[in-house]
Amino acid sequence: MALSGLQIFKQLPKTNCKDCGQATCLAFAMALATGKASLDQCPHVSDAAREVLDSASAPPVALVKIGVGDEQVELGNETVLFRHDKRFEHPCAIAIPVCDTMGDAEIVSKVDAINKLVFDRVGQTHRVDMVLVCACSGSPERFVEAVKLVAGRTAYPLILKSEDPATIEKALEVVAAKKPLVYSANAANYQAMAALAKKFEVPLVVQGAGLDELASLVEKVAELGCKQLILDSGTTELGQVLTDQTQIRRQALKKFRPFGYPTIVFASNEDPFQAVIDAGVYIAKYAGIVVIDSVDPADILPLITLRLNIYTDPQKPIAVESKIYEILTPGPDSPVYLTTNFSLTYFCVAGDIEASRVPGYVLPVDTDGVSVLTGWAAGKFTPEKISEMMNTCGIAGKVSHRKVIIPGGVAVLSGKLQEISGWEVLVGPRDSSGIPSFIKQRWNA
Amino acid sequence: MAVAIVKERWTNKVLEMTIGQEPNAVKVGGDSTLPFLHFEGEMPNRPVVALEVWDMEPDNWPAILTEPFKGVLDNPVAWAKKCADYGADMICLRLNSAHPDQMDATPDEVAATVKAVAEAVSLPLIVVGCGVEEKDALILPAAGEAISGQNALLGCATINNYKTITATCMVHGHNIIATSPLDINLAKQLNILINEMNLPLSRIAMDPLVGALGYGVEYAYSIMERARTGALNGDKMLAIPMICFVGQETWKTKEAKTEDNEEWGAQARRALLWEVLTAASFAQAGGSIFILRHPESLKLFNNNIAAMMKQNS
Ligand code: B12
Ligand code: SF4
């Protein structure tokens, strides 16, 4: 929650000494409130005041980084309860577990399967994010072996899971440089775990049995100097997880400091189908990391797609590149379709053309990534812009006819477009799902 | 440390709607909090699920979807009974045969089918037209009359055809589905117009025209969340149950239709999860009535709902 200029002013020395470059403390306070100055510019502010002002300006959910390099996962910095209020900042990370009781070959093949969970969607690459290594064997040596094996096989950040600080320490001695997440500090071991997290400078999960215990543990761990924390309220029961995740987010937004961190949730339903559905609920409802034990793309693709939908910035639609797209294998007689470069629009149209089983070309005009009607209403899908794209993209060299199909929703464009482009304009159905029957009845090149 | 639980103080609740007749009536809505937040308010009715039945054989359903309905796809009565056996709360009868591009069936023809289905199953009925606004304005009055007094749910009424459909609901004692394209103001406007014709708000279900996973979930999800928070904050014109046609959207996606492959995994598993995850995310956003297609999705989604409905601390 940002402070007002007056609230900030109350914390300043009120001497008007001008060392900050402003004429008065009040002017400086106003500049701070609007982000035009930084607190460091006043050399006289007291430590107490600095703490008040810093904590007021800190994000409600701390930014936590796990791993290093390109594959580093960033979580937190969330500022809202509903995506429509602004946006969700850091997509929930998907982690898949590997257990040290598995044989080496089994571990290797599972990690390889995890690495392969990479999907193309709306022109972007989407994948899972982390591998959790679980110390189930009870042998610290075996755990370290397993961790080494996994770390050597994937670039994804690791989560090291053991409640035994000695076991964690052995593993950290080997992989701390990769900044794995340690799971977990609980009521019994938090002092030792916090010490390890500090020593090796790695992020740490704090696990409490319920919200009350979680809050007090977080306070203690934070007092021991750990700031890169992830929260686990200790439940795997679906309804209770929703309650806890909702509370943690709400409290964080109200600046209840112990809950101002991202969370981790385990989708551990015994029924593997149901576990995927639970994971979907957690993705929608505030989980920072979701752990799910599946390397089946049929499970992971829907989850990754849901995550993409939930974390899309409502103010910034995803766009596709404005160029010629070939659906199936079109030839000189194939139909040419016009649409906009809003990815959702483009993929609806492309999908429906594919469903028609008649190959075709699609030309998404650059409308800054908005839909057909939005683009039209905003003057971004005009006959001029459309014919410019038609002239520059090279479609005239690909087809022998001069006919183009436009969305039914913008039938009003047809006369002007025909005039400017010189192409015959066919008005297609309003909804692209009408393309298959339209094309069969109406197309002959 | 005792954490003080944060509860919102909502000022309004969603109206309760009853569909069908006792002893088989289904109740939806009545929520006084966001979905499944039992610590904060009431959610007296769980979300309900209808399976789709068509009045003509679908020609573009993938095999994994036709399989469970083998032998009944050309017979709406048998198909509806099958859905009842599969455990649906309601039957959603879709009058596709009336579509001018299909069989262009007459109002009398579709009315006869509606009547036959209603006589064969005791579950409450949702009767949906062919999607062509002018044609639906002709067939839905006939359909509504054929099952007069049975308190069905008829739709989809749009800004262009709501008048005749609303009048039918008034005269023959049905509820209405008010459809508007992903826009909260349009939705509200249509609810108001229907309500101004004296159909009580408690007999209107809102259809935000949801998209499937990957095809617009983000818009529908947020429109629904906004409608629900608006309702709880006192906007009476939005305080009605929302209906989500999840099956129709899911089963036209590439992800549901593409056969087994290495990159995407087995079609059956992927497609079912596509349908259920779409539904489950809309349940989190405030959906009350769900129209699905696959009986296995029905089962999986119901398990999810049952777990979500469990009271907890
Ligand atoms: C979400 C939304 C927005 C979002 C934009 C999201 C985006 N990326 O487009 C935001 C909030 C930014 C927005 C803003 C505006 N919007 Co707006 N918006 C919508 C809304 C609710 C949904 C649009 C959408 O995503 N549709 C889904 C996509 C997939 O649909 P589509 O692109 O039309 O594609 C379909 C068909 O056209 C067809 N199709 C597409 N291509 C092709 C090609 C061929 C060959 C064929 C045959 C068919 C076909 O098939 C597709 C699938 O069905 C619509 C209402 C609605 N439901 O249409 C209003 C709507 C489009 N917006 C509207 C308006 C007026 C605006 C604003 C001008 C409002 C304002 N005054 O500020 C601004 C303009 C913004 C700007 N300056 O850029 C109006 C347009 C009215 C009109 N007909 O002129 C609409 C219809 C709402 C309304 N009824 O008032 N909007
Ligand atoms: S430097 Fe500090 S004390 Fe001096 S005028 Fe600026 S704000 Fe006031």
Indicate the CATH architecture of the largest domain in chain A.
Alpha-Beta Barrel
Our measurement of the CA-to-CA distance between the termini of chain B, rounded to an integer number of angstroms, reads 16 Å
The pair of chains with the biggest contact is:
A-B, 56 and 56 residues
**Count of folded domains of chain B:** 1
Separation, N- and C-terminal Cα atoms of chain A: 62 Å
Task: Identify the CATH homologous superfamily of chain B.
Answer: Dihydropteroate synthase-like
Instruction: List how many beta strands of chain B DSSP finds.
Output: 10
CATH fold type of the largest domain in chain A: TIM Barrel
**Spatial sequence of strands, sheet with the most strands of chain B:** 8-7-6-5-4-3-10-9
Q: What's the CATH class label of chain B?
A: Alpha Beta
Topology:
The complex is a heterodimer of chains A (445) and B (313).
Chain A: H1 5-11, H2 25-33, H3 47-57, E1 64-66, E2 73-75, E3 93-99, H4 104-115, E4 118-121, E5 124-127, E6 130-134, H5 140-151, E7 158-161, H6 165-175, E8 181-185, H7 190-200, E9 204-207, H8 211-223, E10 229-232, H9 238-253, E11 264-267, H10 272-284, E12 289-292, H11 297-311, E13 325-327, E14 336-340, H12 343-356, E15 360-365, H13 372-377, H14 383-392, E16 403-406, H15 414-421, E17 424-427, H16 435-442
Parallel strand pairs in A: 3-6, 3-12, 6-7, 7-8, 8-9, 9-10, 11-12, 14-15, 16-17
Antiparallel strand pairs in A: 1-2, 4-5, 13-15
Helix pairs in contact in A: 1-2, 5-6, 6-7, 10-11, 12-16, 14-15
Chain B: E1 16-19, E2 26-29, E3 48-54, H1 63-66, H2 76-85, E4 90-94, H3 107-120, E5 125-128, H4 133-146, E6 153-157, H5 162-172, E7 175-179, H6 184-196, E8 204-207, H7 217-232, E9 242-244, H8 246-250, H9 254-257, H10 267-285, E10 287-292, H11 295-309
Parallel strand pairs in B: 3-4, 3-10, 4-5, 5-6, 6-7, 7-8, 9-10
Antiparallel strand pairs in B: 1-2
